[in-house]
Structure formats: C-alpha cells, structure tokens
Amino acid sequence: MTKRIVVGVLLAAVAALLLACQVEQEAEDTDVTPAVTAAASSTPLPNPTLPPLAAEQERLRQEEDAKPKFEGVVNGIRLYPTGGGASERKDACSDAKGEDVQQVTMDAVAGTVMEITPTYLPDGAEEQAQMWPPVVCKGVLTSVERWWTIRGKATFFIARRQGEQAIDTGASADRISSATVGGKRAAVVKPLTPAGYGWSMVIVAEDFGLTVIGADGLPLDETVKIAEGLR
To answer: What is the mean pLDDT of residues 131-136?
Structure first.
C-alpha cells in the first residue's frame, strides 16, 4: 500500500469519526434536552400551605369529625347527634299538619316566656336581620331565635324551644359537660379551642323546654355570660 493510500484511509477514518460524533451530539441536542424540558414542565407545583393557625384549626376539625358523636342524657337534658331521625326532639310541631303551623313576627313573642331579652352581649356584637321567624304550632309558640355577629371575630345566637328538653349537638363526648347556669340545669359543649374556634353551646333547661346559646369564635366563658344575662 502506498503512502498516499495510507494517508487517504486515515483521513477517511478521521472524517467518519468526526461525522459520528456530530450525529451523536445532534441526537443529544434534539432528543434528550426536550425530554427533560417536557418532564420538568409536567411536574405539578407544590400545593400552597395553610397558615399555622388555620392548619391547626383544620386538624382539630378533622379530628372532631372522625370521633363518634355523643348520644345520651346530661343533667336531665337529652343530647343526640345531628340528623338524629327518630331521636329528634318532640314538641307541638312534631306531629303538626301544614295548617297547624304558622310563622309569626317578634311582636307575637313579646311578653311571653319565649321572649329573648339579653342583658349582656360581648363588645362589638351587632344583631343581624332575622334569619328564621318565630313558629307557632297548634297555637303554641314553639321556636324563637335571634342572631348576632362581631365583625371579623364571631357569630352567635340565642334560641328558645318549647317542648322536650332535648337537642342535637353533633359533638363528641369529650366536649360535653354538665353545669349550672343562672341557677338552672345546663349542658355545655365546649369549642375546639379555648379562643372559641368551633361551635360551642350552652343549653339551659327551662319549664317550657330549652334556652340555647350557640357561638363560633367566642371563648366558652363569654357564651356562659350571655346565658347568665338572659331574663
């Protein structure tokens, strides 16, 4: 083989090697990089996290939802889970027909034992428009309630119910206790936090049935003070 042929073969080999490297590089440029980009673009963004206080409240709510709901008698007051069906309390409306039920105004409540007259309300409390009117069944005033809010902080109501001393609470047993409020038998449902997150209730036995104070956003002692201040 002549020197010229040997040199030609070597040059051809070098050219082939350079061409192979170029093809491999182009393959990397076209195939690998777009694949990585596509994978990166399909990666979901992390979910936003709740602020610490909201996260703690959500945790407490979920824990409460997972617990069995209390059903039983506390201080002579029958408590049952929300949506109790056959457990629902009995009053003049329990077996009333449509023509036996009448909605009335607050004027019809004035001067009766069902009238709601608070002497204590927390600072900033503003009464809201009437959500549900008083109800009369078979000539008996069975249900009256009033609602208040404290802007950006709390909502609470005062209700009076004629009939059986029973009510649905939807609360677990560890939130419920007996008490004496204004010299009367009572059952208390504490909020999920001392500051008042999660509905609390003060349920007071009355000759006509029950007085109920429910609050979300108020410490329990404030809800009790509202109950103690009722006439």
So the answer is: 94
